[in-house]
Every structure is written in C-alpha cells, then in structure tokens.
Write a structure and sequence with these properties.
The chain is mostly helical. The protein contains eight helices and no strands. It has one domain: Growth Hormone, Chain: A.
Length: 206
C-alpha cells in the first residue's frame, strides 16, 4: 500500500507542476469549485468538475471490478491497478487539459477504491486527511487502549511515501512534463501483474 501512496503523491505533484490542478484529493478542489461558481470562472469550474466526476467514476469502477468476492481479490485488485496504469497513459495523450485531468482523477479514484479495505483497514492512499486523522485518534486513545502498532506503521508509511512520491513527482514533472506519468503507470502495471500472478500461483498451489 505504501508503494501506491508514493504513486498517488507522484501523480498529484506532476499535475500540480504541469497542469496546475491536483487530482488525487477533492476537499480543496470542491472548495475551489464553489469559489469559481461565485466568480464565474467557468473554465476552472469545468476542469474541477471533471476531476470530481473522474474520481467518482474511478472509485465506482474499482468497486464494480472488486465486488465482494474474496477468493479472486488478488486478481481483481491487480486488474484495477492495470486499468489505473492504462488511464495514466491515456492522460498523457489526451488532447486537452480537461480530459487529462478527468483521466488522471479516474485513475486516482480507482486506486483509492482498491485500497479502501486493505486487510480490514480503510487505507486511503491518494490523500492524507483521513490517514492523519486516524493516526491522531490512535495516539489519543493509546493511553486507554494501547496502540495497534501494525496500523500505526501502515499509516505512518502511507504519509511518508506520499511525501516521497510528491518530491519525485515534482522532479519528474519539472524535467519530463506530463511524460513523467509513464513512471507511475509502469509501477501500477508491475504491481497489478504481480498481484494477478501471485493469486494465480496460490490458486494452483492450493
């Protein structure tokens, strides 16, 4: 999951550097949507609306692929990651900013959907508000209930690797422009294929 947080930080940084708009989280974007509605900045309003719609479509797509099946979860998670990679590649070649933002946000929504119930934990890899909140609540409750160090480590790793991804994405976006998206696309492809092969191997071994 930490690797996917790094991917999300990378993608978000590339879009902020190259295309101005963040695509991996929505709270600030929705606030800007409201501002643009009042100031009648219709172009930015439309782009942010496409980001919101894309993220929603991506999460819905992930939910549709994953379903509730336990036995094939590895295969289905892998398929979602491969689809995410395809969306990132498509964003590179999209003819305009609105479509680029929509495709990248869809990829991020897919990723967030696939990690939303990882080993019984709600792990959000494309934004950190919920992660930092959960971490703070865990620390606050620790004086009464102790700490689940596995969950603490997972959340700290998510935050740290999102930051690392952001740093790498800023460098990639500055030097390679939108072509830098090929890097997270390659990572998602490798992770997806690995998940599919691993699940198939376990199935054949069983």
């Amino acid at each position: 999951m930490g690797l996917l947080a790094c991917v999300a930080g990378f993608v978000n940084a590339v879009f902020i550097v190259v295309l101005i708009f963040p695509v991996s989280h929505l709270s600030g974007s929705i606030a800007n949507l409201s501002i643009n509605a009042i100031t009648r900045n219709l172009w930015e309003f439309a782009v942010i609306a496409l980001i919101l719609l894309g993220f929603l479509c991506g999460a819905a797509g992930a939910g549709s692929v994953l379903g509730h099946a336990e036995r094939t979860n590895g295969v289905r998670r892998g398929l979602v990651l491969v689809l995410e990679a395809a969306l990132l590649i498509a964003a590179i070649f999209a003819p305009n900013l609105g479509l680029q933002a929509f495709l990248a946000a869809t990829a991020c929504g897919m990723q967030n959907g696939v990690t939303s119930n990882y080993r019984g934990m709600a792990v959000r890899t494309t934004h950190l508000t919920g992660t930092v909140t959960d971490l703070g609540v865990m620390l606050g409750r620790s004086r009464h209930h102790g700490l689940d160090w596995r969950q603490v480590a997972m959340h700290v790793q998510t935050v740290a690797l999102f930051i690392v991804g952001g740093l790498l994405g800023a460098i990639g976006g500055t030097t390679l422009g939108h072509w830098a998206l090929l890097i997270p696309a390659a990572v998602c492809t490798a992770a997806g294929i690995s998940a599919i092969v691993s699940e198939r191997w376990r199935g054949s071994a069983g």
